[in-house]
Amino acid sequence: MPFRRIGLILALWAIAVGPAAAAQFQKIDLPNGAGDGILISGMITAGDDARFHALAATLPHAIVVTTGPGGLVGPALAIGSETRARGWSTLVPAGTQCASACSMIWLAGSERMLGENAQIGFHAMSMAHNGQYQETHDVDNVLRQWLTDLGYAMDATATIVNTHSASIRWFDAIELRANGIETESFP
């Protein structure tokens, strides 16, 4: 995969978007003896991948619990890549939503779980330019390659990026499975 190209695109995107409040990361105990979790909530921003790595390095195993509206795709892909490399599962808890960059982290789980009435939101990627967001297919192409590297079929990657960047297409577990994205229930 062309990591220099990914880095350049994502660095430009981070500059274009500007600062925002970083996501919150915390170690949690999952219910029913399911083990340790790393809760990621809020907007994914620059440097969040380093915060995730620092917390993940303290745990031999964890389930990555994600909720939030999205944020920067670069740190989200890095968090997702580390999650997959560690063989960890991901979870969106009951009654919550995970959209955009947050959904990329969820997709990277070795097993992807959804709580009751949880939703995953997808859309094409965009970059801020002169204060307005514009859809960019360069980032979508990087995202498609990343998803293919995770083992997703082209049909599934098309599902993920086929909604205009100004909208979000919400999926529940049934719709995800129908689009080739395996999903388990939690608990």
Low-confidence stretches at least 5 residues in length (pLDDT < 50)? Answer: 1-19
Q: What's the helical proportion of residues?
A: 25-40%
Query: In the CATH hierarchy, what is the superfamily of the domain at 3-121 and 172-178?
Result: 2-enoyl-CoA Hydratase, Chain A, domain 1
Proper CATH architecture of the domain at 3-121 and 172-178: Alpha-Beta Complex
Number of strands: 11
Q: State the CATH class of the domain at 3-121 and 172-178.
A: Alpha Beta
> Radius of gyration over alpha carbons?
15 Å
Distance between the termini: 35 Å
Strand order, largest beta sheet: 1-2-3-4-6-11
Broad shape: globular
Which class of secondary structure composition applies to the elements? alpha/beta
What fraction of the residues are assigned to beta strands by DSSP? 15-25%
Work out the oligomeric state of the chains in this entry: single chain
Which sheet architecture does the biggest sheet show? 6 strands, mixed
- Total of helices: 7
Write up this protein:
This protein is an alpha/beta fold and 187 residues long. The chain has 7 helices and 11 strands. It has helices at residues 3-17, 48-56, 73-85, 101-107, 137-149, 154-161, 173-178; strands at 24-30, 35-41, 63-67, 90-92, 97-99, 112-114, 119-122, 126-129, 132-135, 169-171, 184-185. The strands form 3 sheets. It has a 6-stranded mixed β-sheet with strand order 1-2-3-4-6-11, covered by helices on one side. Strands 5-7-10 form a 3-stranded mixed β-sheet. It has a two-stranded antiparallel sheet with strand order 8-9. Strand 2 (35-41), helix 2 (48-56) and strand 3 (63-67) form a beta-alpha-beta unit. Helix 3 (73-85) packs parallel to helix 4.
